[in-house]
Design goal:
The chain is 39% helix and 14% strand. It has 361 residues and is α/β, with parallel strands linked by helices. The protein has an eight-stranded parallel β-barrel with strand order 1-2-3-5-8-9-10-13, surrounded by five helices. It has a two-stranded antiparallel ribbon with strand order 6-7. The chain has a two-stranded parallel ribbon with strand order 11-12. The chain is built from 13 helices and 13 strands.
Length: 361
């Protein structure tokens, strides 16, 4: 199996912004030293949900302070960016990290982020699709000529080019929407499962559908193991593993449920009158799904929370369901930094060795 650490650097009220960012960076450096293979970072703006609004700077700091860990984005919200600048930023990161970048992308869902940056959320899907094509062409062609609805350039020399050829591995955050899975397969992009697909117990089915679509498009995929995001917390005793998250595990849902600058819930693609944005109709019940996530008895794959022995057994169940690639946050927003570091250490030293040579499902 393959394992990674994940964070959007939530801004919990018990920590300062600087403390949260510095602790996250220290945890990533430690994960690198302990042999964890990947770090995944997600951008957000305008709320306590996540502090990585300046994600390119943070990624550069991670690249400079680590040596072996692969550095992934989960995700860059493409519709909020100029795709040519994104191509330049990711290529630069690939150069300074010596080819360690995994590029994860998504269409976004927080309407206040779109409003704050002056982007119409109703255009997010077509902006996303076009941006993917712009970025791939910018990386693979000597000079970029592209004429689309949102990008139009001629003979543009986009530099630098990525170290990895033809370009860094691409990953796309998807829900259970067949359209998003189909688009990912059409561009040979690996899907990132988790979130609602984990809550609903559908992550294995999502990956299976992606593999079927890859077959339809004639793209090889047997060598690929799309990742899944899951909460991970390892403690010396089950009592501690179950007690520590109390009062903390619903931080994300609490923030996403609260009202944002547009008067609507931060975590929903809707306006203050409750109108769901175009293309997001399947989000109508998303908050209810999040509430299920915060209930440890929810449907889906078992929570990776417990002693090393318990987490090993639950990872075996996860692998038996066809998931061979997992990344998680190793703690909870508001948890003391030393307990997150301990969770990373216990996972790396007492859980990972059990899966070093384990056959994939």
């Amino acid at each position: 199996m393959k394992f990674g650490i994940f964070t959007i650097v939530p801004y919990h009220e018990d920590f300062t912004q600087q403390q949260a960012l510095n602790d996250a960076l220290e945890q990533i450096v430690y994960a690198d030293q302990m042999g964890i293979e990947e770090v995944w970072l997600g951008e957000h703006s305008f709320s306590r949900h996540g502090l990585l609004s300046g994600i390119w700077s943070f990624l550069g700091a991670v690249a400079g302070r680590t040596r072996n860990i692969r550095i992934g984005t989960a995700v860059i919200v493409l519709p909020l960016h100029n795709p040519i600048l994104v191509a330049e930023e990711v290529a630069m990161l690939d150069v300074i990290s010596n080819g360690r970048i995994n590029f994860g992308i998504g269409a976004g869902y927080q309407q206040q982020e779109f409003n704050g940056l002056g982007v119409d959320i109703d255009t997010s899907r077509e902006r996303f699709n076009e941006a993917v094509d712009v970025i791939i062409k910018a990386w693979t062609e000597e000079r970029l000529t592209f004429h689309g609805k949102y990008t139009s350039v001629d003979d543009l020399w986009v530099l630098p080019k990525p170290v990895q050829k033809p370009y860094p591995p691409l990953f796309q955050a998807v829900s259970t929407s067949p359209e998003s899975i189909d688009f990912a397969a059409s561009r040979q992009i690996q899907v990132i499962a988790g979130g609602p697909t984990d809550i609903l117990g559908q992550a294995p089915q999502v990956i299976k559908l992606w593999r079927e679509k890859m077959d339809e498009y004639g793209h090889p995929h047997a060598h690929l193991d799309p990742p899944m995001s899951k909460s991970i917390y390892v403690a010396p005793t089950m009592e501690e593993a179950e007690r520590d998250p109390i009062g903390l595990e619903d931080f994300s849902s609490r923030v996403l449920r609260s009202a944002g600058s547009n008067g609507a819930p931060i975590g929903m693609p809707m306006d203050k009158d409750g109108n769901i944005a175009k293309g997001y109709e399947h989000w109508a019940n998303r908050q209810r799904d999040r509430d299920r996530r915060d209930d440890v008895g929810h449907a889906g794959l078992p929570p990776l929370r417990g002693t090393p022995e318990v987490v090993v057994e639950r990872l075996k169940e996860t692998q038996a369901a066809g998931i061979n690639h997992v990344f998680g946050n190793f703690g909870f927003a508001g948890l003391p930094h030393w307990k997150v570091m301990r969770s990373i250490e216990l996972f790396a030293t007492e859980v990972m060795p059990h899966f070093k040579e384990a056959p994939v499902a």
